[in-house]
Design a protein that fits this description.
The chain has 258 residues and is an all-beta fold. The protein has no helices and 19 strands.
Length: 258
């Protein structure tokens, strides 16, 4: 990936520009950009701060040798993170050589979470009719060169509304019948390759939940059981809105695809 952080655009030093490439020959030159120039001439945008000054901004990140997810309190909305990611997703395509994804803002120099969607501020719902702004995969499953714009969903039928990532669920925490706490993957849908809307894969290391997190605090932790045995998770709140949140895996056991 190439991050241009020298105040390149209308956002000046409040934002950086980011583009992914299949190969790079130097710091400025690469092949097969993601997004393509036709899709986004200036790439995507990482919002760092509401002002180009020396104010310290809280940030968090999870990363391994395959990907990074980062969130930042920019100051545009009090106690709300903006976020971006780059790297491998978990692919359902065997030997997927193009399972790289970039998620970041699609609008430059905007303080609005809604009008400049990023990884956490935009809506995800059960509609597969359109792709999501700022969500790109390196190539379709056909392997033809050229980034594709994809859709991201979760099981919104169990949520209180089809709103932003990590919205307050409508099910009590813990679940009444078994005392369980449930996690949900964020699915990625290819809308460019027939048959369209297929599930290409899922984002690694982060999970939504249909259970309400209103009674939980930021950075609460829990251990996994059953399919998640031996894993641990941390709750990040303030994603897209003050009350929203997601569970982040904190053990070195993120699922990897071939």
């Amino acid at each position: 990936m190439r991050i241009q952080d020298d105040g390149p655009g209308a956002g000046t030093f409040k934002e950086a520009r980011i583009v992914s490439y299949e190969t790079m020959s130097d710091v400025d030159t690469g092949t097969n950009p993601m997004p393509t120039v036709a899709q986004a001439a200036n790439g995507l945008f990482i919002r760092k701060s509401a002002a180009a000054d020396s104010t310290a901004r809280v940030w968090r990140a999870i990363a391994d040798d395959r990907m990074i997810i980062m969130v930042i309190f920019t100051g545009d909305t009090a106690n709300v993170f903006t976020g971006w990611m780059w790297g491998d997703f978990y692919s359902h395509l065997s030997a997927d050589g193009y399972r790289t994804m970039l998620i970041a803002r699609s609008t430059e120099n905007s303080s609005s979470m809604g009008s400049a969607p990023d990884m956490f501020s935009l809506q995800q719902n059960n509609s597969f009719t359109t792709a999501l702004a700022g969500h790109y995969i390196q190539r379709s499953r056909s392997g033809v060169a050229g980034a594709i714009n994809v859709q991201r969903t979760n099981n919104v039928g169990q949520l209180s509304s089809n709103a932003t990532i990590g919205t307050l669920g409508s099910i009590a925490d813990p679940n009444g019948e078994d005392g369980g706490r449930y996690l949900q993957d964020f699915w990625l849908h290819d809308r460019s390759t027939a048959p369209t809307c297929s599930i290409r894969g899922r984002i690694r290391g982060i999970y939504d939940t249909p259970l309400s997190i209103s009674g939980r605090s930021d950075l609460d932790t829990m251990g996994g059981v059953a399919d998640y045995s031996g894993r641990s998770f941390e709750l990040w709140k303030g994603l897209g809105a003050v009350g929203n949140g997601m569970w982040v895996e904190t053990t070195d056991s993120l699922d990897t695809s071939s």
